[in-house]
Amino acid sequence: AIQEQKPKRTLQLRPKLSSLGTARLKEDSNLMQQLADACLVVDALEPSVREELIRTVCNKELTAYQQIFEGTEVAKLDKAERRYAWIKRQLRANEDIWQIFPHSWRLPYLLCIQFCKVTRSQLSDILNGLKEKPDVGTLLQALQRTLEFEEELAEKFGGGSTVGRDGESDTEELEADLESNKQNASEIRKKYEKQRAARVGTGTQLNCGSEEARELYASGAGFNFRGMISSCFETHLTVYVELEEKTLMENLEKLVQEETWEAEEGSQTNILSSSTQVFLIIKRNLKRCSALTKNQTLLNLFKVFQRILRAYAGKLSARLPRGMTGIVATATGTDQIKISDRDERVICYIVNTAEYCHETAEQLAENIAKIINAQFADKVDMSEEQDEFSAVITRALMTLVHGLETKLETELAAMTRVPWASLESVGDQSEYVNGISTILSSSVPVLGGLLSPVYFQFFLDK
């Protein structure tokens, strides 16, 4: 009996569906009741009938959207938020209309899925059709509005239920009642819509026949709105990464130029302020990017961070005093480096700063590996950058060693001029010994107070 009603009910619904979304339908309670009753009959038929009806409704609703936002002034990238405002208005305006359809159909939810697919396709065409690189501000604003919209949908459609606790579907129960002919369609509708409304949100998925139906009827928890539209921006975010790198490099240059090469007053870490500022800027960029995407673009930005840190290591190394020739250099085959007391302090600050960067770079990589999508996590590694800072530490400590040797050159030269072979007796302490003691006493305690125990011991061993 139910199957015999299929052609008749379907034919009755098609002309009436043309009234959906109009003021006339909202004002015609009889028409709304007829459509609601007919939908309950359709719900009792095979899934393909219901799917056809849902497609018809969704396509009709989105026809106007496609006409408005394709090839028109409002279809531009900088007006992306108008797309989302449009669908939200439609959902609010047609709240009464959606009541016509059984709750188990979740028609607003399915409409939003189709809206996302159409919008993704249109935005992809816009982005791919750009003759020049997009404006970064416009691109990021459109992406941000898209992410916000996806988040709204994810919160709005968080789950759904179309199956009873005992596993028997509402459709099967409804079909049984219709066949028994004990109640009219209106009474049946009230009974089963009340039951469905009570069960919405339990997260059970409708068992539909076709693969397409399974996709359409997936529960809110099963369908991920996040990334549904925004993922089309991913391949176009290169300009954003390029701008971030340019800005980071400019900031790095400015920080190094303004660096006093003295530890901040009152600081107990004895590191250069430029290093903490570099990582603050990096973390700010990381936070901004991870709010937009955790995919390839975040990995690309991580590679920018690597280049920035290598550049900073180069800046630290370049600040170290350079060597020249001398007696000690000739005798030992090492560089002779003339350094002042201030130079010694600066070198110690560079050692401490490189150590701080070595440790913080590792922490940065660990944090990024945790937030980036799993497929990219194994590519997040700062070991090479850590090696760069380790090399800076080694060069700085050797510079201290050579600098101290250079300070001792005069005394060591005096020692070489002593006629050791002709000495007949040993007298009081020699002048060069007094000189060496004075130099070591003025430098070594200062270095010990600035360097960590590990690196101070390394210096003494050398």
TrEMBL record:
<dbReference type="GO" id="GO:0000938">
    <property type="term" value="C:GARP complex"/>
</dbReference>
<feature type="compositionally biased region" description="Acidic residues">
    <location>
        <begin position="169"/>
        <end position="178"/>
    </location>
</feature>
<feature type="region of interest" description="Disordered">
    <location>
        <begin position="159"/>
        <end position="180"/>
    </location>
</feature>
<dbReference type="GO" id="GO:0042147">
    <property type="term" value="P:retrograde transport, endosome to Golgi"/>
</dbReference>
<dbReference type="InterPro" id="IPR039766">
    <property type="entry name" value="Vps53"/>
</dbReference>
<feature type="domain" description="Vps53 N-terminal">
    <location>
        <begin position="21"/>
        <end position="259"/>
    </location>
</feature>
<protein>
    <recommendedName>
        <fullName>Vps53 N-terminal domain-containing protein</fullName>
    </recommendedName>
</protein>
<dbReference type="InterPro" id="IPR007234">
    <property type="entry name" value="Vps53_N"/>
</dbReference>
<dbReference type="Pfam" id="PF04100">
    <property type="entry name" value="Vps53_N"/>
</dbReference>
<dbReference type="GO" id="GO:0005829">
    <property type="term" value="C:cytosol"/>
</dbReference>
